[in-house]
Design goal:
With about 725 residues, this protein is of the alpha+beta class. Helix content is about 45%, strand content about 10%. GO terms for molecular function: ATP binding.
Amino acid sequence: LPMAFRDVNARRHIGLQQLSSLALAGRTLLGPMKSCKFIVDESTNQSTLICSAVRLIESLDLSSAAGQLLNETIQAQNKEFKTGMSTLLFLIGAWSNAILECLQQNVPVSAIVSVMSEGLNSCCERVQCLQISIHDVNKELCSSSVRPNTFKSKTCQIGPDSLLNPQNFPYFQKDILAPEEVIPINSCSHQDDCNFNKCLVSPLAGFGSIASLVKPAGDKSTSVSSGSSVITSSCNKQKLTHSRYFSTLGKSHFSSQQGNFQGYLSGQSADACECYGLGHLAVTLSHGNQASMKLLQSIVAYQQERAEGSSSSQFNIAEIVTCCLLGLPESYSCVFPGLVTLVSPEQATVIKYFEDKPLRILLMDGDLTEQYRHLGFNRPCNVRTILEHPSLQEGRAGDLWLSSMLDILISFEVNLVLVKGNVCENLMERCIANSILVIGSVTRDVLRAFGEVTSAQPVTYLTQVNAACVGSGAQVELWKACDGRAMDLGELVPVRIKVRGIPLLTAVLTTTVPSKMQLIEDRFWTLVYRLHHALNDEKVFLGGGAVELLCLSHIQMLAEQPLQPANKNAVKEFHNPWLAASATEYKSVVLQALASGWKQYLSVVLCNTAKAASVLEACTLVDHHLKKAADCGSPSAYILKEFRRGDLLRGGSGPFADHGDSLKVYDNVTAKTEAWRRALDLVLLVLQTDAEIITGPKRNQLLNSHVSSEFMFL
């Protein structure tokens, strides 16, 4: 997708202007109510629906140096956290514009770099008072008055031979929960569940269950004990629920439907807090993503059930995989123990032969090809292979390899082979002819999960196989939808590989819209990683714009402080009295520029969530809260109080103004602060690179010439 840059000054700081133009395309991706974009491939005329900064950046023309740096920054954030990319992209654009304004006021580059860096560090320290530990979230939930009225307690125990209760896993299909006993598909009653779930916001039928709630760790000024709220809502209310920002809930039909639902709770009270709170934490981090939240809650419940609710940290992201099925309504999305994957119709014929039969399984940690060699393999350079019969065709050697590999599989009676890498097509065909199922491109985590329950030991080459490497107990079947239909999606057929007690879970994601498939998968993994990082951090930020509002208030307070002469420490740091004096002189201007980034952030979120009709109205609302926070004397105390009441950044009118309850939402700590730092680091890097080019030995010649902008930023 070519990117049309704005009319920029072709003689100065092209890099910053390019960053600003590129980031402008991601404004609608900010906040819980993102506006999706259709990206059209000009070469194929195919389109896809995107709703994340990562997919947007992949579609833009990033041939410029600034664009390449932007792409690397976004990809680094995505690789490490899988969340925070939209915030990162927006702040890059906002701070690029702010710095350009500083440059127009002749603020020295050295002052911009030093003051902005110090300001961001100060903000990161200041917002620590808005962190709340996971333990406090669970503790608040257990003491919340809403719990007895929301969930009906039930002791859930699981043994190696016990049948898991489907009611405890709202997005599990009931027929797949028995380890051995097969429950007929047509006996799976959906009537009661469907009647109940019609009252929920999510349209998914046959499932149900959501949980909710909270005490942050306050600063010196105050301590907080949050209220509680029920998080189910009438499907008649066409309003946003589970919103990351400013959301409240309609009245629930839950109380009249309690008899149809039994929530997941452990028998021990302390463990119940941890287990129950972990499911609640997924809700508070969902940021309006209802469908993914339901799937994740079922995953959490299943993992907690297997761990007997022993700890709130019993969430293993390595035991989760996804399978995307195109052609089914989104209401068919659900979670299955085992591996659900796609195979060719030819492989499906083998599966029909194996259905309901125990299989011998082999795991391969590499490619199943003749040319594959493990990492670190050193091919001898002084060894030459001489054919005894040079007249033989080259393909004969390949046939010998195929025959020998197939003989190994047959001799050890292997029925199923899971391969981490690629599989030789000719070998695949021979295996199908001999009723051996080979599935490639399987992750190492999947191999590990099957190895644990089948006693199979991964091998790198088939020549290493011995009797101890082959596992047993696996079963393969055609995947069936919740209404009992076996699916044939044309070129590929979904199948399920299961083993008793396997920890691996597959989230089957479905949709009838091809361009939406990637979007659904991205949203699911974003939520999964939010919960994962929250547990790793052992704390979360208050959400709903609380952190950004405190940053804005703190920076403005620093900017309003009277100018002071440069102290000795500052002079020593800059090694130049002029630089220290310059930073002090322009401190207020630069800090206001830094603050403008967070103010624009809050304003755009307010507009995207329809809490403000215009940017001007949004800025007015933000200024109103800033004034009240300043008048309070302790901005953090004011923000904590408003967060507790659910009034933070809420307008006097709007779709949620008539409701008193609001949903408590949270953000990741490390992912958010790293997004801030990466955004500022990139902007300052581009600023200093531009400055070095412009202030070089040919500065006057460069500024007075019509040099192409491509040479202005290297």
